[in-house]
Design a protein that fits this description.
The protein has helices spanning 3-35, 42-63, 81-112, 125-129, 131-151. By secondary structure, it is mostly helical. The chain is 68% helix and 0% strand.
C-alpha cells in the first residue's frame, strides 16, 4: 500500500477517534449531570446518539478494511481459487448494484430531512443522516476496487495466506 493511502487511512482513523471521543465526553457529562448534580442534560443523549451513528457509518465506509469485517467464509475457504473468484465477483457486484439502486431514494430521503430538526440540538436531520450517503459511496468505491483486485488476481489466497493477528 502506498504511503499516500496510508496517510489518508490514518486521517480517516483520526476522525473516527474524534467522533468516539466526542461521544464518550458527552456520555460522561450526561452521567455526571444526572447523578452528581441532579440536573439531566437532554442534549448530551442526542449528541451521543448522533456521534455513535456517525462513528458507525464513517468507520464502515472509510476505516475498516475488508479483512476487518465479519465474514461467513466457511464455504469460500474450502472451494478452489476459480470458484472463490466467482464468489468474490458475485458478492462485489451484488453489493455495488444494491447500493447504486438505493442511492437515488436515499438522496431523496436525506434531502427531505432538511425540513426536520433534531429534538434538542435543533440540527437539521439532513446533517445527521447525510453521512449515510458517504457510507454508500464509500462502499461502492471499496467494492469496485475489490472487483478490480479480483480481476487482476491481486487478492491473497486464503489457503496460503498467513493468519492475521
Amino acid at each position: 500500500m502506498s504511503s499516500r493511502t496510508d496517510w489518508w487511512q490514518a486521517r480517516a482513523d483520526d476522525v473516527a477517534v474524534g467522533l468516539l471521543t466526542a461521544m464518550f465526553l458527552a456520555f460522561v457529562l450526561q452521567i455526571t449531570a444526572r447523578y452528581v448534580i441532579n440536573y439531566p442534560l437532554p442534549w448530551t443523549l442526542e449528541l451521543s446518539l448522533t456521534m455513535w451513528l456517525w462513528t458507525v457509518f464513517w468507520g464502515s465506509a472509510l476505516c475498516l478494511r475488508n479483512k476487518d469485517h465479519i465474514a461467513f467464509d466457511m464455504i469460500y475457504n474450502h472451494v478452489g481459487p476459480r470458484t472463490r473468484k466467482v464468489f468474490g465477483i458475485l458478492s462485489a457486484v451484488c453489493i455495488i448494484v444494491a447500493m447504486l439502486v438505493s442511492l437515488p431514494a436515499t438522496w431523496d430521503w436525506v434531502s427531505f430531512l432538511t425540513i426536520k430538526k433534531s429534538a434538542t440540538l435543533r440540527i437539521p436531520l439532513a446533517y445527521v443522516f447525510s453521512l449515510f450517503l458517504l457510507f454508500m459511496v464509500g462502499t461502492i468505491v471499496i467494492y469496485g476496487l475489490r472487483l478490480r483486485q479480483i480481476f487482476r488476481n491481486e487478492l491473497p489466497d486464503p489457503a496460503t495466506a498467513a493468519p492475521q493477528a
